[in-house]
Structures are given as C-alpha cells and as structure tokens.
Amino acid sequence: MTVRRLFIISSLSGAGRTTALGVLSDLGFQTSDSVPVSLWPDLLVQSQAEDIALGWPIEAGGTAWHDEQLVQSLSETLEVRHLFLSADRETLQRRYSETRRAHPFDRGTGLMDALTAEQEASLSRRALTDEVVDTTGVKLADLRQSLIAMTGAGLNPLQIRSLSFSYRLGLPSDADMVFDVRWLRNPHYDLDLRPRTGQDEGVGAYIQADEGYAEFERHLRGLLQLTAVRQQKEGKAYFTLAFGCTGGKHRSVWVAEQAGGWLQEAGFGVSVMHRDVKKF
C-alpha cells in the first residue's frame, strides 16, 4: 500500500516558499499556498493525489496553537515532511526592497522591525520542522536539486553543495563542514593572478605548487568520500561543504571546485557555488 506524502513548506517572508512550491508542483505534487490549516484535513480527504505540498505562512501576531496541534496530528495517517526556509537578514531585506511589496509583519515601523518581528514569531514554527533550509545565495537550480533529493525524485538521494566563501564576510550559516584554506599559498600576492579567480587554471597551478597541497588533497579526498557515503546511508537529503579563505576569490574557490569534481566522479549529485567571489 502506497503511503501518501505531505510536504509542508514554512518560510520567512522572502525566503522562497512560493518558489519551493513551484518546484514541487513541477515534480508532480499537488500544491497550494492559500488553504488555511483548518481546512487541510478536508483537502487531504477530498484530494486523490498521492503527493501533496502545502504552504504554511507565518502570521503576524504569532502562530495559532491549534493549527500547530493539527499539523502534528497529520503524521498519524500521512508521511509528513516539514521544511522551513530561511535566509539571512541582508538577503531578506534586499529581496523585499527589490519587489517593493509591503512585508506582512510591517506595522508602520519599517522593514527591519518587520523582519525582527517575523523572526521572533517563527521560533515555535521552526521547532516543529524536520529540516531548516537556508536559501541565502541559493539559485533556483540549486534549490530545485535540493528538493529533488529530498523528495526522492532524483537518482541520488544526497545532494551535496560545495561552497566557497570569504572569512571577511562571515561563516555560511548552513554549512555542515567548514574547511579553512587560508594557509595555502595565496595568489593575491601575484599581480598577474590577483584579478583572476580560483576557476582559472593558472590560479589553480599556483595553489597546487604549495608544498603542503598534495598531502592536503589526498587527505581531503578520503575524508569527503567517507563523509558523503555515511551521510547518504543516514538518509541525509543535502549536505553543505564550505571552504573559506580571506577574500573568497582564489584559494577557497579552487578547492571548492576540486572537491565538487571529486564527488561528482564518485557518483554524487553536487552543485558548486561561490558566495563571495565577486565581492572583493
């Protein structure tokens, strides 16, 4: 007997709930972002779909206790997966500034206060979720791949993200493993290489010339292979590796690219992202 699945998508405003529901619709889910929680049981009874995805907005004034109890009770008859989409304040502020829409928590005191109010109101909701997904800097294609992995629609249930970043701009909030590669030979001090990035073979050759790089690569390959295999066995949907250097332009970019390539060769689904490559 096939178990019906329900994906619940909660989200901070601007973190991508509508986008995620669109992706799930493309994957064959019956989706809605406008049905009140009180009507979900009726919808689930009347729907013939095996896979359903529903958006659950956070409401100003806090979340309704009875709605939370109702959502928790659904797992008694369905396979329920509850995802919470988040993003950093800078990203949310930028997205709202670009859309020019009013934030649902804005009570006339401005966007930053609205973001703070929604963050506080989301705490009880986040406690109910199975997984929190940070969409900061995430492209639609990468979000799609993550959802494909989570729903089992792809061939590989584990989606790995190999991410480069600059320590000047802080650690990625969703990183599962962080590697500091600031000790590697720095192309920034070569005037010919300075304007290039770690995606350039010349920059890569410069980094590989570091006397410690070969041993580092050997150990890193083994560690990443072991970690990916075990994460997959544990049923992890996605896993983020983060490689950081000072400016996020040379060393971290090169190593993130290499790591992504090694894991792809091993048969894992991998997306490579460079958070800060154009910021310095």
Task: Explain how this protein is built.
With 280 residues, the chain is of the alpha/beta class. It has 2 domains: 5-151, P-loop containing nucleotide triphosphate hydrolases (Rossmann fold), CATH 3.40.50.300; 159-274, no CATH class. Helix content is 39%, strand content 20%. The protein is built from 10 helices and 9 strands. It has helices at 17-26, 40-46, 65-73, 89-99, 111-121, 123-128, 140-151, 201-208, 213-233, 251-265; strands at residues 5-11, 30-32, 51-57, 79-86, 131-134, 159-166, 177-180, 238-245, 269-274. The chain has a 5-stranded parallel beta sheet with strand order 2-3-1-4-5. The protein has a 4-stranded parallel beta sheet with strand order 7-8-6-9, sandwiched between helices. Helix 1 crosses helix 7. The protein starts with a strand and ends in a 6-residue tail after the last strand. The mean pLDDT is 88.
Name the features.
4-stranded parallel sheet; 5-stranded parallel sheet; alpha/beta; globular; Rossmann fold; 280 residues; 20% strand
Beta-strand residue percentage = 15-25%
**Average pLDDT, all residues:** 88
Please report the distance between the alpha carbons of the first and last residues: 56 Å
Order of helices and strands: EHEHEHEHHHEHEEHHEHE
Count of alpha/pi helices: 10
- Number of domains as seen in the coordinates: 2
Main sheet? 5 strands, parallel
